Amino acid sequence: MKKLALALSVLASISTPAMAEGDAEAGKTKAIVCSACHGVDGNSLIDMYPKLAGQQATYLEKQLHDFRSAAQTGGKEGRNDPIMGGMSVMLSDQDIKDVAAFYSSQVQTLAEVKDIPASGEQIYKGGDMVRGITACIACHGPDGSGSELAGFPAIGGQHANYLKIQLNKFHDANRNNDINGMMQDVAAKLTSEDIEALSQYISSLK
Predict the structure, then answer these.
(1) Inside any domain, residue 111
(2) Residue 168: which CATH number?
(3) Per the annotation, does 48 bind a ligand?
(4) Which amino acids does the record list as binding heme c 2 (predicted)?
(5) pLDDT in tens, 85-115
(6) Is 38 annotated as a binding residue?
């Protein structure tokens, strides 16, 4: 909770510098190699890989830079992933901007999610004060659209299996490129049942 408050207070006190925009049309061509896992339009058909369509460009850029950094430093920095490391290390800064611009310009497809555990909605909207779990809605919003300015990604409508994989990585501290370790703090307090319920609920958001 303290880390969340710190991050938000810092964001409120600084201005965002102008950043060069990516070229979505150029990114479409550069992203062809990504389509095997993420789909032609960023809507992956394999639920272990994320849907990138409609995701914030700045968040996509950060992840690609983090993947590339991990590949260049042997996993000492950034976000370590054997597949994405190999893909991103070949990208220039402009390539990253262009690919991010392309995916952010696409429209995410939504799937009907059934039999959602009630606890998933409860944790997402209200957290758990007893266990010190911050409500997900505080950062990701009521519909899971997140906040680009704050660096919180859109997660609504994402594959439940991908969400589950990432929450488990944060839980086990195998992923640590989150802002001020906030996701690690929250996920560490979640049970496997919580993670399953949350993943299902978030996937159902529209």
Answers:
(1) no
(2) 1.10.760.10
(3) no
(4) 136, 139-140, 183
(5) 999 999 999 999 999 999 999 999 998 888 8
(6) yes
The verdict on 126 and 194 lying in the same domain is yes
**171 appears as a binding residue in the annotation:** no
Is 159 assigned a ligand-binding role in the annotation? Answer: no
Residues 90 and 155 in one domain: no
pLDDT in tens, 53-94: 999 999 999 999 999 999 999 999 999 999 999 999 999 999
Is 139 annotated as a binding-site member?
yes
* Domain final residue, candidates 105, 132, 147: 105
The full DSSP string for the chain is -HHHHHHHHHHHHSPPPP-PPP-HHHHHHHGGGGHHHH-TTS--SSTTS---TT--HHHHHHHHHHHHHHHHHTTSSS---HHHHHHHTT--HHHHHHHHHHHHTS--------S--HHHHHHHHH-BTTTTBPPTHHHH-TTS--BTTTTBPP-TT--HHHHHHHHHHHHTTS---SGGGHHHHHHTT--HHHHHHHHHHHHH--
Last residue of a domain, one of 54, 71, 105: 105
Note down the domain range covering 95. 24-105
Q: What's the structural domain count of the chain? A: 2
Q: Is residue 19 part of a domain?
A: no
